[in-house]
Write a structure and sequence with these properties.
The complex is a heterodimer of chains A (282) and B (487). Chain A has 282 residues and is mostly beta strands. Chain A has 2 helices and 18 strands. With 487 residues, chain B is mainly beta. Classes of the chains: A mainly beta (282), B mainly beta (487). Chains A and B meet through helix 1 of A and helix 1, helix 2 and strand 12 of B.
């Protein structure tokens, strides 16, 4: 069959057009529908909690230190746990996850042990996107947190140094997390806070992403792909202390105290917070 | 969706190279490729899996919203008050009506309690996509429901669940009864059941509305258990049957509260560490097959249940000697060889000092009393009492497993209840019969013990036998059989 070159080009053009349209349809069909929740994407610091060797199960000492003991009055909140640096309480597991575990056991005068690690003196920064992927524990009186605390070389103390709570959670409310700031005039029970309630799901059955994007005069809070809170100087009932200080990261699981209430007979121990990664972007 | 992106990208490259060729088959190839892309697009939009299995039973989650859902039928229990259930168009949580339950007073001639199943008679529903049965309920008075749940179908009741002791209040509250393992309920016809008796002898009314199955997504942290989570130890014999009991599943709900439901064995998988010693079937029925040890455990949906049963099988059981006395000479309290008088109880569980528990068992249809944690125990038979005037003797067989304690000292006391025929009242008399340690008290063998009743002058209203350790005897575990009075 003799093929007319004009016909071929027409057919080809038409076909190309059809193909292009269908191709575009495919792309449209396959486009990711991610909300613009985060804008800072240059990674500046991270810990993926992978073991450096098969037997080295402690967190990277160049990134994390430990808070030990009961602090002053249960870390200021009548918390019940004694924080230790033992692997029973803080360890990297074989799947590359950080495990912070609260254990019900008598220890140096306390009835519970747990872990609290922090980047104080090791990584301190201002502004940025701070994000962690976490599977939370559960049960009455269990209080995990992912937060930032202002450094205190000025001696101003808390709450003037500022505190940004990226994620706090009460174990007896497994569908709710809270994002807050504490500062002078708005601290403790007066903190500026907003809560996010997960629908048809809970935070202790799978991993979720918790983060903030923090810039001059704003802190945006997000959970997974939902921006749920923005705090600005207009929202706080005192000085905005988040533009003028460097902050470090803290991860911990507390037991009992004034924020969450004490565990009861229904609370199952041990309880573990599983962290896949912590990342900082700018 | 990233997958289909790569898919079409590959085809774009292929198309490109084909267009470059001056081949007379270009046209057909382009058409062919167009068709493929079209298919890809369609596939992309439809998001259908190749592996869809046709669901054969309806997944309708509604049981009662404003009326009976399709296929639902009401079946009250035979001796319950049949008209306890009605439809109420005035009191309801939402919509046009609710389910109304009128629990009868004690003594109501039309039924002793309220209870029924609500069954899908269209062949059952596929409930595997849900995680709980939910409903709103309120009550005319604060009350505690005996049983409420699902999975009872007047058939096998294979996946029956009960929430026991649900507390109702006088205002509408939403309740959640979690499904222990929804993957089992691919064809369930028992959609709802309840049973409730009067509260303090008084009947009352409660209402249920918006009764339906839901996928809440917040039913989590399953903790199944058998034997209420306890680790049970039994010493036993070939031929004995033991049931795994107190099967429960506990979940944490989005309220942060834990809730526990009682479940049928159908949700569990039972395992014996040595099926040659103890074989356990899918209903949790254990049969002891040989001497040795075995541990019975269970799991629900892959999660190990708390609680275990450790079997220590001694082997074959030696039965007590068969009594040879003629039945007309015998008044029997406990024996498989005679007709027994009515017994009020074989263990009075007298508080606060009694420690004795009962672990009675049967082997091949022959029954044995087994007292464990023994200090003292009573067997009462006062309805009616026994007139032992014509019977001159008491007989029983005793078996002490393992070892006779060196300080063995055993007292049997017969109590005559006197003319008032009840325990106490100032007219009772007692006869003490001592079983002292002697070479004839041996372990792992049936001992025959007989006493003359000559010294018991009043014995026409005998109502109680008490067995007890005396003088600090540390006898802990014993079996009794063939307890009877004889001429």
């Amino acid at each position: 069959m003799k093929i007319n070159s004009k016909n071929i080009s027409k057919t080809s053009l038409f076909s190309c057009g059809m193909i292009a349209i269908l191709f575009l349809l495919n792309i449209a069909c396959s486009t990711d529908e991610t909300q613009t929740v985060t804008t800072l994407n240059t990674l500046v610091w991270e810990d993926n909690f992978d073991r450096s060797s098969a037997t080295d199960s402690l967190p990277d000492a160049t990134k994390w230190g430990y808070n030990i003991g009961t602090g002053a009055n249960g870390w200021g909140n009548n918390e019940l746990q004694y924080y230790t640096s033992r692997p029973e309480n803080v360890v990297l597991n074989t799947e590359g996850m950080l495990e912070i575990t609260a254990i019900k056991e008598p220890y140096l005068g306390s009835n519970y042990t747990s872990g609290r690690i922090l980047t104080q003196g090791l990584y301190e920064n201002a502004y940025g996107r701070y994000e962690a992927r976490i599977k939370l524990p559960w049960g009455q009186g269990v209080w995990p947190a992912f937060w930032l605390l202002g450094e205190n070389s000025s001696g101003a103390g808390w709450p003037s140094i500022g505190e940004i709570d990226i994620m706090e959670y009460r174990g007896q409310e497994p569908t709710i997390v809270h994002g807050s700031v504490h500062g002078p005039g708005y601290s403790g029970g007066e903190a500026i806070t907003k809560s996010y309630n997960l629908l048809n799901d809970r935070f202790d059955t799978d991993f979720h992403v918790f983060g903030i994007e923090w810039g001059p005069a704003y802190i945006n809070y997000y959970v997974d792909d939902v921006l749920y809170n923005q705090i600005t100087p207009a929202d706080v009932t005192g000085d905005w202390v988040f533009d003028s200080n460097k902050f470090y990261i803290i991860m911990n699981v507390a037991v009992g105290g004034s924020f969450v209430g004490n565990p009861n007979v229904e609370t199952v121990f041990p309880q573990t917070m599983l962290v896949d990664y912590v990342r900082v972007y700018q | 969706m990233g997958g289909s992106y790569i898919h079409s990208h590959k085809y774009w490259k292929i198309i490109n190279s084909y267009i470059m060729k001056t081949n007379k088959h270009i046209q057909s190839k382009i058409t062919f490729l167009l068709g493929l892309i079209l298919l890809t697009t369609i596939a992309c939009e439809r998001e259908l899996s190749e592996d869809i299995v046709e669901a054969t039973f309806t997944t309708n989650p509604e049981v009662y919203i404003d009326g009976f859902s399709s296929g639902l039928e009401y079946y009250p229990y035979l001796n319950s008050k049949h008209d306890a259930f009605s439809v109420d168009t005035e009191v309801k949580y939402s919509g046009s009506s609710s389910m109304r339950f009128d629990v009868p007073n004690v003594g109501d001639p039309s039924g002793a309690y309220a209870g029924a199943i609500f069954r899908d008679d269209n062949g059952g529903r596929d409930l595997s996509g849900y995680d709980a049965l939910t409903f709103w309920a309120k009550s005319s008075t604060a009350a505690t429901l005996n049983d409420i749940g699902f999975g009872q179908d007047f058939g096998e009741n294979k996946f029956q669940v009960s929430k026991r002791g649900l507390r109702l209040s006088t205002n509408w509250v939403k309740y959640t009864i979690p499904i222990p393992d929804a993957s089992r309920l691919t064809q369930e016809s028992g959609l709802f059941w309840y049973a409730e008796g009067a509260e303090n002898d008084n009947g009352y009314t409660f209402w249920i509305d918006e009764l339906k199955y839901e996928k809440l997504g917040t039913v989590a942290q399953p903790r199944p258990s058998i034997f209420n989570g306890d680790d049970i130890n039994v010493n036993t014999f070939i031929g004995v049957k033991i049931n795994v009991s107190d099967l429960n599943q506990t979940f944490n709900l989005d309220s942060g509260q834990n809730t526990t439901v009682s479940t049928a064995p159908g949700y569990f998988v039972f395992t014996s560490s040595d099926p040659n010693v103890a074989f356990v079937n899918e209903l949790g029925e254990v049969l002891i097959e040989s001497a040795g040890s075995a541990v019975i455990t269970a799991s629900l949906n892959g999660i190990e249940a708390e609680g275990t049963l450790t079997i220590n099988s001694v082997g074959s059981f030696a039965f007590a000697p068969t009594p040879l006395r003629s039945p007309e000479d015998v008044t029997s309290i406990f024996s498989n060889h005679y007709t027994n008088n009515p017994v009020d109880f074989f263990n009075g569980y007298w508080q606060p000092y009694q420690t004795t528990l009962s672990a009675d068992f049967s082997i091949n249809g022959d029954d044995f009393l087994n007292y464990t944690n023994f200090n003292f125990v009573g067997i009462q038979f006062a309805n009616p009492t026994v007139d032992a005037t014509e019977k001159s003797n008491l007989h029983f067989n005793m078996y002490i497993p393992d070892q006779v304690p060196s300080n063995f000292d055993f007292l049997v006391t017969l109590v005559d209840f006197g003319p008032d025929k009840v325990n106490g009242g100032g007219d009772d008399t007692r006869q003490q019969l001592f079983v002292r340690n002697s070479p004839s008290i041996v372990a792992d063998s049936w001992i025959t013990i007989e006493f003359s009743l000559a010294a018991m002058s009043t014995r026409n209203n005998v109502g109680l036998i008490i067995f007890e350790n005396i003088n600090f005897s540390s006898l802990n575990n014993l079996y009794l059989d063939n307890i009877y009075f004889y001429k």
